[in-house]
Records
---
Amino acid sequence: MLDAVTPIEARRPERTLTVSEGSKTTPCSASECTLGSCPLLHELGVSKTYSPNSVVFFEGDDAAHYFLITSGVLRGCKLLEDGRRQINRFIFAGDLIGYSINPKYTFTVEAVTPVTLVALRRSAVENRVEASPCLHSAIMKSVLSELDEMQDQLVTLGRMNAEERVSRFLCLLAERSASMPAGLARDDLAQIEIPMCRNDIADYLGLTIETVSRVLSRLKADGKIAMPSCNRIVLTGRDRLKTEPGDIAA
Amino acid sequence: MLDAVTPIEARRPERTLTVSEGSKTTPCSASECTLGSCPLLHELGVSKTYSPNSVVFFEGDDAAHYFLITSGVLRGCKLLEDGRRQINRFIFAGDLIGYSINPKYTFTVEAVTPVTLVALRRSAVENRVEASPCLHSAIMKSVLSELDEMQDQLVTLGRMNAEERVSRFLCLLAERSASMPAGLARDDLAQIEIPMCRNDIADYLGLTIETVSRVLSRLKADGKIAMPSCNRIVLTGRDRLKTEPGDIAA
DNA sequence: CGATTACTTGATACTGTTCAATATCCGTGG
DNA sequence: CCACGGATATTGAACAGTATCAAGTAATCG
């Protein structure tokens, strides 16, 4: 089952998350401009930090700002009245959030780890966008990329079983980790740091914490992963769990 | 359960699907321009028709065109090697499809009913976009609106049971039907035409056809819906099944 | 009118949930 | 340094919801 389906992720352009801390004032050079590296954005906004589990914005708040993540991991989630929660995505360094067709945010964003980000007034960004086609296309890319991610996630939630969901989650995380600055030893074996708790994973995958835990234990027993600690996982060998959506049926 | 959660849909701007069949050459009047009504787009493209179950494009095809739907219903879906299918969304008149961050389409689109649409060369649209901020913002709206829809669907697939899923589906369809040109008698009772088969509904909701069928039967037995025929459903009375994502927990 | 497809219904199996207990991790204070 | 306590994670047993398999019914089309 783990090799049954191969990823559409592979076809995607690489995530660009070069966050220029120094913010040199180089002018936006047309084609290569990415959100994370754009000095304009960094100058336009205000830096902020958030501690784990603090809220960046609530669903229903006025959507007054965009946020460009500098470091850390966040979760974007929706809550139902009865307490059920769905985490739509995890948000990483380089990601832009806050765009919406609504005047209000349509989901809540909270910090998973300590987070630093740049808050940008929506109107300020939109003014800039009119003058800068480069910025505009960078934002469009960000939105389209999120859309793509959501579509894959729909396949995961709609048509995959627990083991496939967890495997896919680990693979996605491994991809993200691979491009993260805090490079762990990623030679032959991909060791991933799991920044979020089991509860977050469960709410992301549409499962319960117990099921997530059980699947991880089973993957370990099957020799597909190793778990030096409960938030550190090694995808062992080359049979790295491949189970992702988007494949064309024969 | 049916009244447990209330929709985020309510907060969304109305879908605009005024398709100008006549295509008068009125110039794009700034703020009010919508994709469906934009004469530019209609002139730019080529009209096509599709019969039920024919393919507009396959996942993996070169993403050379945008398509603006004039009439009919389509499904956007992903297939897995083993035959599993997830329908990410149903596509209606007024919708624009084909945008992607990839050079290839990331999902397959097929006609559910007879469909007419306008095919627009991607490059042609993108040239226009640079000159026309109005067109650009219309496209952005379309993308953001789809993103919003996907996010709600994630909650549905990740956290809702079969009855909630089917109820929500019926409500969404009722909203869409309400604004459709072929206006059925929608006075007090909302009668909806179900254009897609049970299999499509199942693959959209992450269920099996049997479960969809059983839930519909149960809703009927409970007096929540009436089914004059198997593709015509009446949401009876005011207790119209309200079960949708996006609600803020207390 | 027969054949095919779509839909419904029933019986059973299985995956994942729920409830409950136990284990592990981590920070605090004796 | 170890003991304690709370939070987080794992494991077990029973249960529930949905899938699967199979049969039967209704709708559709040539």
---
Amino acid sequence: MPYIQDSFRRQGLRFTPQRYAVLDYLRKHPCHPTAEEVYKAVNRRDPRASLATVYKSLHALARAGLIREVNLAGNATRFESVTGPHHHFLCERCGRLEDVPWFDVPGLAKKARAAPQAVRTWELILRGLCKSCQSRTRGRANWEN
Amino acid sequence: MPYIQDSFRRQGLRFTPQRYAVLDYLRKHPCHPTAEEVYKAVNRRDPRASLATVYKSLHALARAGLIREVNLAGNATRFESVTGPHHHFLCERCGRLEDVPWFDVPGLAKKARAAPQAVRTWELILRGLCKSCQSRTRGRANWEN
DNA sequence: TTTTGTGCAAAAGGTTTGCATACGA
DNA sequence: TCGTATGCAAACCTTTTGCACAAAA
């Protein structure tokens, strides 16, 4: 995959081990980790990597369009390496964020064109109970995984 | 409007001046204020009102279903008094959050029923440039209301 | 060699909490 | 009266910043 380096260069970004580690982690962990989680993993690999740099790397990668940040709950921002358009499901009990395969919303493109705003993208947010929270209707939040 | 008091009681919540002030402010300002903004307004009316109480009131009201919190950008949570289902538009330049009249997504109810998750609600998030940001394509963010 | 990125520690938001006191039901 | 809500200040969590040093291009 020599493409990554090119994506970096195309954006005038330098290709550093830290940035690569962050991107690599996100690509291998599509579970929408927080900055803290990315930091812990990257730091385990290279103990010199700092939290501030992870944050800066995440922003740099987002600017370059290589990753995306998702901000739906009130707590920490979550990150994902973009794999094309998709929707999101947010579990109201445990906070788990899941991808939902993309499907087009019929008529929305037309509506968007007619709107007073210049709509560039759209996304559907579904909320409810995730699979594992459905079984434990009266339990506490489950934070595993 | 004696209904508000009832809504409170029905949820086992006490009807306090602070809570009423918070709800009232949100009803009269549908521009999705932050907790800080609500606090400033409420505190102007009653200088004894504290920020902590505003936060607690916002949560109490949300639990009671009288208001809703919206969390789309990475910054402060925004609040709105629910006026029925609607979608949201978020300006990518100035951060302005606008309501978009509700319209049903055809076929989604069926998709939701077939999903592994128990989908309870859904909402569309549109992103792009708001009206005033379109005119100033090269300007800074505009924060006037 | 010239930028740009990194690491550290400190600061800056935004939000929550503990506890004594006040107050609604 | 009883139990919940308030106000205050301190704590907390997440994210950003300033600056000297390191390392890509």
